[in-house]
Design goal:
Distance between the termini: 15 Å
Strand content: 25-35%
Mean pLDDT: 90
Number of domains: 1
CATH architecture: Alpha-Beta Complex
Length: about 200
């Protein structure tokens, strides 16, 4: 949930690692974006619900699910970590290549990313991050609007470009295209009727 870019200049992962641990930032092409100190309750309800469904269904596979804060470094080719100028913290990331995982988080594109939209993050997630994830080869990208209960799905084509988005309501089940047999079952609206956009 990014706010204004408060640091000026061009930064790398080496700089990022020196910043206070109680501050959350993302780097995109060297530009630093401050993250909101805490997401809304509605946002967290969706993160917990999705992670709770995803985790047990990955048992026995090479895939792992992680929730923010979790650093995903997106290097250009084989550049050293210290020179990487793009580090993001997706709300949910699923990585199926164990070689991409290390003590610092993930180096390389996750197979599937989910971002939960908010008023402060909408442009960042829908425009800036969509282009970033496409460029780095994230195979499936979900944008979930918790208030309107709408899901937008981008899937990477053979040409390395996201095709026409699949837009659907949060009803019934939604299969995950990049992981065979995995479906997300959406809770009925009544289950979150006590939540509001301001929570």
């Amino acid at each position: 949930m990014p706010q204004a870019a408060l640091k000026t200049g061009s930064f790398t992962y080496a700089d990022y690692c020196l910043w206070p641990e109680d501050e959350r930032w993302e780097l995109i092409d060297g530009e630093a974006f401050a993250m909101a100190p805490a997401p809304t309750r509605m946002h967290q309800d969706f993160v917990v619900e999705l992670a709770a469904q995803i985790h047990p269904k990955l048992a026995g596979s090479s895939c792992r699910v992680y929730v923010a804060p979790f650093d995903v470094r997106l290097p250009k080719d084989d550049e050293a970590d210290a020179l990487v100028d793009t580090v993001v913290q997706p709300d949910i990331a699923v990585i199926c290549d164990p070689k991409k995982l290390d003590a610092k988080g993930c180096r390389g594109a996750p197979d599937w990313i989910v971002e939960i939209l908010s008023a402060s993050s909408a442009v960042h997630d829908q425009v800036r991050k969509r282009a970033l994830y496409e460029r780095h080869g994230v195979r499936e990208y979900w944008l979930l609007h918790p208030v309107d209960r709408v899901l937008t799905i981008y899937r990477l084509g053979a040409d390395g470009v996201y095709g026409k988005p699949d837009v659907q309501g949060l009803e019934g089940q939604t299969p995950v295209g990049v992981i065979d047999g995995l479906e997300i079952h959406w809770p009925a609206p009544e289950a979150d009727s006590t939540l509001s956009a301001g929570d």
